[in-house]
TrEMBL record, chain A:
The chain crosses the membrane at residues 21-50, 70-88, 152-171, 191-214. This is Amino acid ABC transporter membrane protein 1, PAAT family. It comes from the Bacteria. It is a multi-pass membrane protein. Residues 22-207 form the ABC transmembrane type-1 domain. The keyword Transport applies. Its main location: membrane. Pfam families: BPD_transp_1 (PF00528). Belongs to the binding-protein-dependent transport system permease family. HisMQ subfamily. It is found in: Cell inner membrane; Cell membrane. Keywords: Amino-acid transport, Cell membrane, Membrane, Transmembrane, Transmembrane helix, Transport. The keyword Aminoacyl-tRNA synthetase does not apply. It comes from Shimia sagamensis. Gene3D superfamilies: MetI-like.
Automatic annotation (TrEMBL), chain B:
This is Amino acid ABC transporter ATP-binding protein, PAAT family. Residues 2-236 form the ABC transporter domain. PANTHER family: AMINO ACID IMPORT ATP-BINDING PROTEIN, GLUTAMATE_ASPARTATE IMPORT ATP-BINDING PROTEIN GLTL. It comes from the Bacteria. Belongs to the ABC transporter superfamily. Gene3D superfamilies: P-loop containing nucleotide triphosphate hydrolases (3.40.50.300). One of its GO terms (molecular function) is ATP binding. It is a peripheral membrane protein. Keywords: Amino-acid transport, ATP-binding, Cell membrane, Membrane, Nucleotide-binding, Transport. It is found in: Cell membrane. InterPro entries: AAA+_ATPase, ABC_ATPase_HisP-typ, ABC_transporter-like_ATP-bd, ABC_transporter-like_CS, MetN_ABC_transporter-like, P-loop_NTPase. Its main location: membrane.
């Protein structure tokens, strides 16, 4: 009943192209994470400390990012903005979609992290003469960072995997590139099998690096 | 000198301090006793400006703590504080806990700050724990770490907020011993405490608080030997 013959040669021939695309995947995921961490931190602080339109904006951001399909968010930056005449490059669409999504999830992680630090830590800092900024940057944030470290790692993995949605808006990252070669050669199974391995290796490297970094960073 | 004039403090509609008048001289050790909720700890928080006040004022060495324009961060360097829940910084070693504020608040060099920190830790008997994280210290050790941390700012006054209340009984002694040592060195101290033995033996004066009012103040012999107020008598009868 299985009369399918595997042909791996075309995959191997385009392996350099796939690896190059993998670098693009990693690049867009890392950029999205860096932006996502900065924006997520701001969103979390706004939700914890502010009122008014900014609070509304931050809450809406978090709600939309977490409660709608990631693919739709990508489509919004692609076709959504496109229908208003704002045409972004596929790279920008994916970067913005990923950032939007990651910032929303990370904001909630950060919020939980901040709430886990007792007020008394701030009181103790202030009683020593530290100003609010010093208390936050020297005492609160380092402790929050440890709490959100592993959730951030998870989010990084998610960003790499989610970037594969990019092929649906015409972005030639790892999945897009795979799709491109697969449809030219009709070796669909072979191509996606190899690509799956590449994704797996990338994720494993991220997790390993994260674990190694953690043992250096957190000695308490 | 710490001068407190007609101090009122509200938490919402709750009237926690009802017109406190109190002066604490340089070199004096004042113990503040009273039931939970009598406003003792709140008084300390008002003295170093961690809590705003609604009426009256606190003046430390001529500076009004709650006045607009007072550099509260500078003033707090004069007012070391030790908390009931010692509040050590878990992400820093003992040495870093103590060295941080001298470095970033007082602008000491890193080497200088570490020098001061090592000295203070030795002073409270933690000279062999410099590179240990607080999680590896006992409650009593963490509280002594907190004392060293406050002392490293070279304050003129030390405020103790029930420094031994959260400790296991067998660890209370070492912290009281450290406080006693400071008193003997001439540090000006205000100690909110439930340790009647400490209040009697170490303080120059004892103040009894009842429902936001300072009912009675005087030398320990008077407060413990011959209390005037009915509430003081009742309180002391219960804690004995």
């Amino acid at each position: 009943m299985f009369d399918y013959n595997f042909h791996w040669r075309p995959v191997m021939k385009s392996l350099p192209d796939l690896l190059e695309a993998a670098m693009l995947t990693l690049q867009v995921a890392v950029l999205a994470m860096i932006l996502g961490i900065v924006i997520g931190l701001c969103l979390a602080l706004i939700r914890l400390h502010m009122r008014g339109p900014l609070l509304w904006l931050a809450s809406t951001w978090v709600e939309l990012a977490r409660n709608t399909p990631a693919l739709f968010q990508l489509f919004f930056f692609g076709f959504g903005l496109g229908s208003f005449g704002l045409h972004l490059s596929p790279y920008m669409i994916v970067l913005m979609g990923l950032t939007f999504n990651c910032a929303g999830y990370l904001a909630e992680n950060f919020r939980g992290g901040f709430q886990a630090i007792p007020d008394t830590q701030i009181r103790a800092s202030r009683s020593l003469g530290m100003n609010a900024w010093q208390a936050y940057t020297r005492i609160v944030i380092p402790q929050v960072f440890r709490i959100v470290y592993h959730p951030i790692t998870n989010q990084m993995v998610w960003a790499v995997l989610m970037s594969s949605l990019g092929m649906l808006v015409g972005f030639r990252e790892l999945s897009g590139e795979t799709q491109f070669f697969a449809s030219r050669t009709f070796r669909i199974f072979e191509y996606f099998a190899v690509t799956a391995v590449i994704y797996y290796v990338i994720v494993k490297l991220i997790l390993g690096a994260s674990r190694l970094l953690a043992t250096r960073l957190f000695r308490y | 000198m710490i001068e407190i004039h007609d101090l009122h403090k509200y938490f919402g509609s709750l009237h926690v301090l009802k017109g406190i008048d109190l002066n604490v001289e340089k070199g004096e050790v004042l113990s503040v006793i009273g039931a939970s909720g009598s406003g003792k700890s709140t008084l300390l928080y008002c003295i170093n400006g961690l809590e705003p006040v609604q009426q009256g004022k606190v003046v430390v060495d001529g500076t009004d703590v709650h006045a607009k324009g007072t550099d509260i961060n500078k003033l707090r360097q004069q007012l070391g504080m030790v908390f009931q829940q010692w509040n050590s910084f878990p992400h820093l070693t003992a040495l870093e806990n103590v060295a941080l504020a001298p470095k970033i608040v007082k602008g000491k060099s890193k080497a200088e700050a570490r020098e001061i920190a090592a000295q203070q830790l030795k002073h409270v008997g933690l000279g062999d724990k410099l590179d240990v994280y607080p999680s590896a210290l006992s409650g009593g050790q963490q509280q002594r770490l907190a004392i060293a941390r406050a002392l490293a700012m070279e304050p003129e006054y030390m405020l103790f907020d029930e420094a031994t209340s959260a400790l296991d009984p067998e660890l209370v002694g070492e912290v009281l011993e450290t406080m006693r040592m400071l008193a003997e060195e001439g540090m000006t101290m205000i100690c909110v405490t439930h340790e009647m033995g400490f209040a009697r033996d170490v303080s120059d004066r004892v103040a009894f608080f009842h429902q936001g009012v300072m009912e009675e103040i005087g030398p320990p012999e008077q407060i413990f030997g011959n209390p005037q107020s009915e509430h003081t008598q009742k309180f002391l009868a219960n804690v004995r």
